Amino acid sequence: MNLQVDWKAPIRTDVELKSCTTFKIGGPSRYFAEPRTCEDLFMALSFHREEGCPRYILGRGSNVLFSDAGFPGLVLSLRRLESSRIFFEKEGLVRASAGMSLIQLNLACQEKGLSGVEFLCHIPGTVGGALVMNAGFGRPDGKYQEMKDVVESVELLYPNGAVEVLGREDVRFEYRNTNLPQDVLVLEVRFRLTPRRRDAIQGEIKANFRYRNSVQDLRYPSAGSTFKNPVGYSMTGGELLDRVQMKNMRVGGAMVSDRHANFILNVDHARADDVLELMSIGQKRVFEQFGIRLEPEVRYVSSHDS
Ligand SMILES: Cc1cc2nc3c(=O)[nH]c(=O)nc-3n(C[C@H](O)[C@H](O)[C@H](O)COP(=O)(O)OP(=O)(O)OC[C@H]3O[C@@H](n4cnc5c(N)ncnc54)[C@H](O)[C@@H]3O)c2cc1C
Predict the structure, then answer these.
(1) Annotated catalytic residue 188
(2) Is any ligand 1 atom within 6 A of the Cβ of residue 148?
(3) 71 lies in the same domain as 115
C-alpha cells in the first residue's frame, strides 16, 4: 500500500525490514520512508508528527537487528538521502551527506587525492551511521582510526525542526558510540583530510580489504561484530567467545562463524530471536568463565521501541 494521496514523500506501509538491513532479519514496519531529497525528508517528518507514532532512523542497517514482530511506527531510512552530495572545500575540508555510503565517500576522496577515510572504505554503512557509531578499523601493521579522528563538524536536525552545526569538540565520541540523542538526525558530516598520492590511497584501501577479508566472515549476512571488545582486557570479544566454545554454535537459522566467534551469521532465514538466543548464551558463558559482561555492539530494535 502507498499513502501518496496527501504526502508527496512516499510513505509505504508494512515494509519488511529484513530488506533494509545487512542481517536480512526483521518483520514489517508499520510505516516506512526512504527520502531522496531534503524536501521529501521534511514531508516524511511532518507525516510522523501528525501520526504521533514511534520513529527509528536507519542508515544502511549494517549495525541493527530488528525484531521479528517488526516496528510499530515509522522507519526513516536515510541511505538514499542526497546520497551523492559531496563538497570539497579548501584545506582538505570535505562535506558529505549523511546518506552517502562509505565506499562512495572513499571513491570521491581518492579521486581528489585526499586521504584519511580509507579505514572506512569497506564498512558497509553510511556517513551518518558511521558518525553515530563512531565506526573504526585498523590493521595490526597500520594505525587504528575512528570517525572521531577525521570529523571536523556535524550538521544535525532536531525533532522541533532546528538545524545545528556542532564542532567535533561538542560531540562526545566513545568506543562505538556517541552522545547524540536518539531522536536527532545527522544530515551532514564535515571531514578534515590530507593530500596524498592516489596510488598510495589505493594501496591503503587494498591492504585494509585484504586484512578485513582474512579476519571477518563475509560469506553470509551479518551485522559485523556482535559485541564490543571489553575495555581494559587483553582479549577481544571474539577471543573470549572463542574460548567459551561459541564457534559453530547454531540456533535456528543463526550460527556463530567458525572463523570469527564475534560474528553471528544468518545462514538460513534466521529470526531475530535466534540471534538474541545465541547472544545470550555467549554472554552467559563469558561471564561465568571470565566475569566479563559483554556489551552488544549491534543495536537491537524491539517491536516496543519508540
Ligand atoms: C560485514 C560487516 C563489517 C563491519 N565492519 C565494521 C568495522 O570494521 N568497524 C565498525 O566500526 N563497524 C563495522 N560494522 C558495523 C557497521 O557497518 C557500522 O557500525 C556502520 O557505521 C553503521 O552504519 P549504517 O549506516 O549501516 O547505520 P545503521 O546500522 O543503519 O544505524 C546504526 C545506528 O546509527 C543510527 N543512525 C544511522 N544513520 C543516522 C543518521 N543519519 N542520523 C541519526 N542516526 C543515524 C541508527 O539509528 C542506529 O542507532 C560492520 C558491519 C558489517 C555487516
Answers:
(1) no
(2) no
(3) no
Closest ligand 1 atom to residue 81 Cα is 41
* Position in ligand 1 atom list of the atom nearest CA 79: 25
Question: Between these two residues, 305 and 172, which has the higher pLDDT value?
Answer: 172
199-242 pLDDT, tens per residue?
Answer: 999 999 999 999 999 999 999 999 999 999 999 999 999 999 99
Integer Cα distance of 244 and 257 in angstroms = 14
Q: Is residue 90 located within the same domain as residue 49?
A: no
CATH number of residue 34's parent domain: 3.30.43.10
Query: For residue 23, how far is its CA from the centre of ligand 1 (angstroms)?
Result: 12
Which atom of ligand 1 is the closest one to the Cα of 23?
Answer: 53
| 289 CA → ligand 1 middle, Å | 30
Rounded distance between C-alpha atoms, residue 222 and residue 213, angstroms: 14
Statement to judge: residues 73 and 94 lie in one domain: no
Is 152 known to be catalytic? no
